[in-house]
Write a structure and sequence with these properties.
- By secondary structure, this protein is an alpha/beta fold.
- About 35% of the residues lie in helices and about 20% in strands.
- The protein has an 8-stranded mixed β-sheet, sandwiched between helices. It has a 6-stranded mixed β-sheet with strand order 3-8-7-4-6-5, with helices on both faces.
- α18 (about 515-525) crosses α20 (about 600-610).
- The chain starts with 7 loop residues before the first strand and ends with a helix.
């Protein structure tokens, strides 16, 4: 029996729908009939997030949890979560810097260990209390030594702030007749001999700041006291801003009323106070961080969206809206079924045959505002909006398969950030072959032969190895039609990579040592962990087909490697190319939500190409 999507249940072999409510019945009126009696402003429809079914809200006594597709039609747009509107600014330290604020965070560097103290872990070492100085000392004296007492009482756990981002318990202060709360934040151990002594400080402080503002209720304003070498560093300020805003993300699109969650809902302003000078373009750095956070929000929104909201049509609509939002730095082109057929994209279209919606091959182009281009690059993201496994149906974890678009999410999130940040000297092509891997009377089956757009024939031995089929035509498009000089591709491609690296690290597969080193450095800078994996050429024997050019799967072992070797068939071997398997870090099992992984890595990679 064929059951169409809808709010119903099977009883005694038949489909029954709860039609007793006029609200429910009206929700499934075809759009064409609804349009005869109700008009809706398009901008309003997009603002609330979905389609003309928003008119149901006006006609019903009870709001639906969210407006989505009708019985006959798929959803055509996805709503976005807005970035927090908290004001984040930077200033220098004045005589009354700590006045008129609800929450104070004081950054503390731990003293460098002497050679005599060593690094022994066998004996519990005594932690020597830090002597506060400068503005922190002045504040401590105002409140009768309360900060010093806090340091001493938490010396073992806090260790003078030796770990960046560590915090003390919140201290209640009475300062100048008003009640305030104070937290000491660790900045790590200051070692001026190390070049990267301050690496990671910005994001660590940003996370600690957001956590404190969320945990402390009724906080409307906060100030963060930072040493000059931290408060005047534009890179640190940008990272702090990015992480702070990213931590305030909350997906309320599918919650109603009291179930909505707004982290730090009372917070209006945060001021970063530098002891000494601040960066010349501190405001620009903080704004850049917020724009990067908007890209991370986009990545999370896409991965978090359920399939009845996010399909190839609504993802293509998202790409178009990103271009509109960019003010001209991004241009969007979407190839439909006919354009893909004309290009011979048989591998992608083979998978797309099983989708509810028609294929949408998304191509966003970033061009710098001055038009000067030193390098043209391509970024490809796997865009499987839901993966059932096809006829090789999955037997576990299917409820998580909305995250199989994690590569596309990272790429579109990066496109949003790049379009806003406007890096010079680089033209970037963001490409996503969007579809779903579903089961119907047209879907591919094991033993089918597909022909990719470069003429390679592929024997499909497992329909659950479908992502690489869609990527094949996307790679040929970037390589041959766009002639990108370097290409990176992100995908939630294999469980084998998760087995090898766990859920916190992505696998980087490339034969180009320079590109591998570049991605390694960027992963460290963006704190998105990645590890270079081997490209064992002998494993390519597993992909040889007896009746076609190549098979879409190898043997039981080394599946992440054979997947990467498969992809090499669709890009010029002389071009720098990297496949990044992000199956592990794209999803946080504890939070039950997307991590936003990949958006920062791709954005930074694109930026560096223009240098």
């Amino acid at each position: 029996m064929k059951i169409l999507r809808g709010r119903g249940r099977v009883v005694g072999g038949s489909l029954t729908m709860a039609l007793g409510s006029s609200r429910f019945a009206s929700a499934f009126v075809p759009h064409s009939l609804m349009a005869t009696s109700v008009s809706l402003n398009v901008a309003q429809a997009r603002g609330t997030g979905y389609s003309s079914l928003n008119t149901v809200r006006e006609m019903s006594k009870k709001d639906q949890s969210f407006d989505t597709w009708s019985f006959d039609e798929p959803c055509t747009t996805m709503s976005w979560n807005g970035v927090s509107e908290v004001s984040l600014s930077a200033t220098t330290c004045g005589p009354n810097w700590d006045d008129e604020t609800d929450l104070i965070l004081v950054g503390i560097f731990a003293p460098k260990k002497t050679e005599e103290e060593g690094d022994s872990e066998e004996e519990e070492e005594e932690v020597v209390a830090v002597e506060l100085s400068g503005a922190a000392k002045d504040l401590d004296e105002k409140v009768g030594g309360a900060l010093t007492n806090m340091l001493q009482e938490n010396s073992k756990a806090f260790k003078n702030g030796a770990k960046a981002g560590s915090v003390t318990p919140t201290l209640r202060l009475f300062n100048n007749g008003s009640s305030q709360r104070a937290v000491l934040v660790g900045l790590g151990t200051l070692d001026e001999e190390k070049e990267d002594a301050l690496a990671g400080v910005g994001s660590a402080v940003g996370k600690a700041l957001a956590s404190a503002c969320i945990a402390e209720k009724k906080v409307r304003s906060a100030k963060v006291l930072l040493p000059e070498n931290v408060g005047s560093d534009v890179s640190i300020l940008k990272d702090l801003s990015t992480t702070f805003f990213a931590q305030l993300y909350s997906d309320n699109r599918f919650r109603t009323k009291k179930n909505k969650e707004t982290p730090a809902e009372d917070l209006k302003s945060v001021t970063l106070v530098s002891e000494g000078s601040t960066a010349d373009d501190a405001a620009g750095a903080l704004d850049a961080g917020r724009k990067m956070a908007a890209g991370i929000y986009m990545t999370k929104d896409i991965v978090n969206s359920p399939h009845n909201v996010l399909n190839s049509l609504s993802l293509a609509d998202t790409a178009k809206r990103l271009a509109e939002e960019s003010g001209g730095t991004l241009k969007c082109q979407v190839l439909g079924k006919q354009e893909c057929e004309e290009r011979g994209m048989g591998a992608y279209l083979g998978v797309a045959r099983g989708s509810e919606t028609e294929p949408q091959f998304i191509h966003l182009t970033y061009t710098p505002p001055d038009g000067k281009v030193n390098k043209k690059v391509g970024v490809i993201g796997k865009g499987l909006l839901f993966d059932t496994g096809g006829y090789n149906i999955k037997t576990g974890m299917m409820e998580l398969m909305k995250f199989d678009c994690g590569g596309a999410a990272a790429v579109l999130g990066a496109a949003r950030a790049v379009g806003a940040l406007k890096p010079p000297g680089v033209e970037c092509h963001f490409v996503v072959a969007a579809c779903e891997n579903m089961i119907n009377d047209k879907a591919i089956v094991p033993s089918d032969i597909l022909t990719a757009s470069n003429g390679k024939t592929i024997e499909v031995l497992n329909t659950d190895a479908e992502g690489r089929l869609t990527l094949a035509d996307a790679m040929v498009y970037c390589d041959k039609e766009l002639d990108c000089s370097s290409i990176i591709e992100l995908s939630t491609l294999t469980g084998a990579c998760m087995v090898a690296l766990g859920k916190g690290v992505s696998g980087v597969f490339t034969e180009n040592d320079d590109l591998a080193k570049e991605l390694e450095d960027i992963a460290k800078a963006t704190e998105e962990k990645a590890w270079r994996m081997p490209m064992e050429k002998s494993y390519a024997e597993q992909l040889k087909s007896k009746i076609a050019d190549v098979k879409n799967i190898g043997g039981r072992y080394g599946g992440a490697i054979t997947a990467a070797l498969f992809l090499q068939n669709f890009v010029d071997k002389k071009k720098p190319f990297a496949h990044i398997d992000i199956a592990g870090p794209v999803w946080d099992d504890t939070a039950g939500a997307a991590t936003g992984y990949g958006a920062k890595l791709v954005t930074e990679w694109v930026r560096r190409q223009g240098e």
